[in-house]
Amino acid sequence: MSSEYIEIKDKIYLHICDWGEGKPVVFIPGWPLGHEMFEYQLTQLPQHGYRCIGISMRGFGKSSKPWGEYSYDVFADDLQSVIHSLVLDNVTLVGFSMGGAIALRYMARHKGDRIANLALCGAAVPCFTSRPDFPYGFEPGAVDSFIKLCYSDRAKLNADFGNIFFKNSTTASPELLNWFRSLGMEASPQATAACLATLRDSDLREDMRSVNVPTVIFHGLHDQICQFELAETMAGSSEALLIGEEEKVARAEAMTVGAKAKVTGAQAMAAGTEPAAGGIRGAKLICFENSGHALFYEEKDKFNTELRNFIDQKSSTGNDFFPI
Description:
Layout: E1 5-9, E2 12-19, E3 23-28, H1 39-42, E4 50-55, H2 72-85, E5 91-96, H3 98-109, E6 115-121, H4 140-165, H5 174-185, H6 189-201, H7 205-208, E7 215-220, H8 228-234, H9 245-254, H10 265-270, E8 284-288, H11 295-298, H12 300-311, E9 321-323
C-alpha cells in the first residue's frame, strides 16, 4: 500500500490525503462521501501554512469496505488509529455532517486525545432524528424510508440527497452536483445503509458535555439536512443567536423546505415542546446565511477564512460570531 493508505487493523485500510506543512488540521467527511468533498479546503489551506489531512472513513471513498459494524464508536477508534499512525498532536479536528458526530464521539470516547480545537460543520449533532424530548431533525420513519431506498435504488437515494444538499439550484453547477453524486456512489452499499441507521438511532447529547477544547460551530442557515436548530442546540440556545430581522425571515423561509420529513423548531415551540438544555461549553456559532448543507462549498471563502481565524485564535470577519 502507498502512503495514501493507513492500515488501522485486520487489513482494513483508510485512504487519506496529507498535504502541506504546519499546524495539523484533520477533516472528517459526511455521509456518504470520502475526503474528496473537502477539495476546496485541502487545496487552499496548505497555501497558508497548514498541514491538512483528509480521511475517508471505512466504507466510504477509496477506503476499505468491510462487512460489519458502522457505528460512531468504530469510526472514533479508526480516527484515533490514524492520528497515532501519523504522530499528530495539537490537532484541529473538523467534522462535517456525520463527520461532526464522529468527531464528537471521538472527544467523548477518547477524551479528546491529541485534539487542540474542534470545528463542527453542518454537524448531525446532537441528534439527526426527532424524538419525544428533541423536536428537531428528520422523523425516524423518514430515515427508514431512506434505508429502504438504499436497498432498492441507491443511485436515486444519492440523487435525492444531492437535490437538497445545496441551498438551491443556483449555488452549484450541474457538473459539480454530478460529481458529488458520484462520490456518494463510491461508498459501500452496506455502509451507506448502516450509517443511516446509526444516524437515526444515535443521541449525542451526553457527548457534548465531554468537550473541553475551543469549539466552533459552522452551520448553513438554509440547511435542509441538518437544520439550523441543531447548531443552536450545540451552542446551548433554543433560538437564533443575535441574528438580524432579515436573517430571521430567511431562516423561517428555509425551514419550510422539506417539512414533510422534518419537524421545525417553530412547530415544536408552538406545540409547547422545549429543546434539551445544555450544549458544548464555550462553543461559538457562525451562521452561513447563504448556504444550505454544503457550506464548505457554497461559501468556501468564508468557510476557509473563518477556519483559519479559529485555528489562529483571531476574531471572526463577520457579525455572526457569538461567544456563548
